[in-house]
Design brief:
Elements lengths: L1 H20 L12 H10 L4 H30 L5 H28 L19 H29 L1
Length: about 160
């Protein structure tokens, strides 16, 4: 059952990214490294304010929906009401999501799809190297130790 839940959780993650960008990679400009963003601004394809607004329009609902769905999976679907098991389950989901994002989303989807190439920025690398993925995901793994504790605390309070 937990494997199915992890698959559904990662599918929700992917769906939210796809909805955010729609059919235009510029809608997800905030995902790109700074040199790509600067080039896009220079080319006049969008401006900083619009990119910042789109980032906020994505990130706030993203964190709320992913957080709420994780709390519901643990507390409602799995019926966990104690901190320790809720913590370990939250940590599992957050770490799988973290590495899924780095490997499947960043390296595979973004790295192998022409969709993510913004015209006029083709010469600027925008896909993270394996070393960058490893470094970023390791740091986020440490951050998710605290995120799992927060999630488990919410589960215990609500259920």
């Amino acid at each position: 059952m937990i494997v199915l839940q992890l698959i559904l959780y990662c599918a929700l993650f992917t769906l939210m990214v796809k909805i955010a960008v729609g059919n235009n990679a510029l809608n997800g400009l905030y995902f790109y490294p700074e040199p790509v963003q600067e080039k896009v601004f220079q080319l006049g394809l969008t401006d900083r304010e619009k990119a910042a607004r789109k980032r906020k329009q994505f990130m706030i609902p993203f964190f709320l929906i992913m957080g709420a769905s994780l709390v519901m999976i643990i507390g409602l679907w799995n019926g966990i009401h104690q901190f320790r098991p809720a913590y370990w389950q939250a940590l599992l989901f957050l770490e799988v999501m973290n590495w899924y994002d780095g490997i499947v989303i960043d390296r595979l989807w973004v790295g192998h799809s022409r969709f993510w190439v913004i015209p006029g920025t083709e010469e600027i690398p925008f896909v993270q190297t394996w070393l960058q993925v490893l470094k970023k995901r390791t740091i986020l793994s440490l951050i998710w130790l605290a995120g799992a504790a927060l999630t488990a605390g919410i589960v215990v309070l609500l259920f």
